[in-house]
Amino acid sequence: MAFDPIIKPEDVRASASLTKEIRAKFTWDDARAMLDGLPGGKLNIAHEALDRHVAAGQGDAPAMTWLGKDGTRRDLSYGDLTGQTARFANVLRAHGLAVGDRLFGLMGREVDLYVAALGTLKAELTFSPLFSAFGPDPIRTRMEIGGANALITTASIYTRKIAAWRHELPSLKLVLIVGDAAPEGCVALGPAMAAASDMFAPVPMDPEDAALIHFTSGTTGRPKGAVHVHGAVAYHVMTGRYALEMRAGTRYWCTADPGWVTGTSYGIIAPLANRVHMLVDEAEFDLDRWYGTLQAERIEVWYTAPTAIRMMMRAGEYAAAPYDVSSLRFLASVGEPLNPEAVVWGNRVFGRPFHDNWWRTETGGIVIANTQGMDIKPGSMGKPLPGQVAGIVERGDAGLRELGQGQVGELALRPGWPSMMRAYLHEEARYAKCFVDGWYLTGDLAMRDADGYFWFVGRADDLIKTSGHLIGPFEVESALIEHEAVAEAGVIGLPDETAGEVVRAYVSLNPGFEPSDDLEKSIRGLARKRLGAAVAPREVLFRKTLPKTRSGKIMRRLLKARALGLPEGDISTLESDES
Ligand code: ATP
Ligand code: MG
Question: Of 253, 265, 269, 273, which residue is the least packed, with the fewest Cβ within 10 Å?
Fold first, then answer.
């Protein structure tokens, strides 16, 4: 574990949303009380995100600033988005789509994607976002699993990736193409929206009605389709407030794409339901663009991921120096373990630490978090949010056994929070297996310390057993990136006759460093000093980049399969890589 000094945020303690009193008294009704709801105990995510703010006289409040790749900028108010999503809902109705139908989103971070997501929910359809960069096969598989009835995409994506097999998916009734023209058999969104009314009352839904299907990142295998319900919005509002410090008007930037659950839960629903002013950047990561955006848009709350933070670190803290980022008051990270080094780096460069939080597609929202005002122990994921009960358990023949502080075991949660998935599509047995003895089992290994902080150790699949030691890759990777030359590290175990497994590390280098035997020795030397000879990698191999999912997660299973010459398995979410 990391022994960096605890970061004590004295200056923000008083302004934290999540106070000791709230923690002590919290019930799920408190979360539901943050919603307006609809008559008869009904609700609709889109109503909570948009229409209710207009009804409360906030129609002119800024909802979204959109930055196009080409430098275009669009500002949309809550009134604008409410009207546009109404038009979208009317377009769906005009084409005969209704309750339970499933619309897939397959396009970049354009305004129409956001309109489609909420317009779909308004019209009681289920929305499923996909990464636009997926190839034809991953798209087809997911649309088949999801039984897609409608799709919104661009003409270019349609022609390149969909047209060839479209008619082999008979459930697909409507293909909407953004812009003013559409290929044959598709409907152009522009004219359809122009002809539609901008009035559409969000359909009152039961809190248990399906709203979203999110596919998991595919880090450990074939992605699973997790089903989420309208009632989840209570959890999105509450965690937006307590874990991400959202308030009405907060200038907020979530860098995640809606193709990944983070980009929907915290890139669409939570911010809008909390009436923040959110930024959407169509472009991909670019160092100067990002620093420039933080400055120009005076971002206050910024939610990003370790892969992006490591890219910023790679460029050095001097790259940040020209920019005034003093507007930032809260920084958070999710998706992968956040190396202690990155937390400390954030504190130095931004004057605020990154607040790591843990959750997953299945949980629908943030579960364990470092919240504003908490002492931060760099390398820890923080503590369970109000309403969440987390435990560390061990599976045995007699059922589950809860482990005590300091012991490493499987991270488990007591089910029952509003945004928990309700099913894995077509995988009932797999879903049922996640629940044992009243716990939801995550397959992630973790440890709880004496102060109640949780520490991520690794995914159960990635754990390395060497000479009687159990090693989580995160610990080794964190030590490796402390080396001045190392930008990123991925650590795996390889079979070994004497040790059981030996630790092998793959690293990519910071600018100005070249692979060499001396450098390899120096990196291994530092790891040995930090971790001891038993845990330190026996080999360090250099790679230009590490294989990652589209949501930026290092795919250790792929490093391992390649090292062993085994089949690569499902690589539908792999970003192009050079390893
Ligand atoms: P798949 O389930 O398809 O293999 P995935 O688990 O990567 O993919 P996601 O739901 O996007 O899909 O990711 C959730 C997982 O990411 C968590 O179970 C955990 O392993 C990891 N993770 C997320 N946030 C953190 C964090 N703050 N610290 C450590 N690990 C994290
Ligand atoms: Mg997973």
Answer: 253
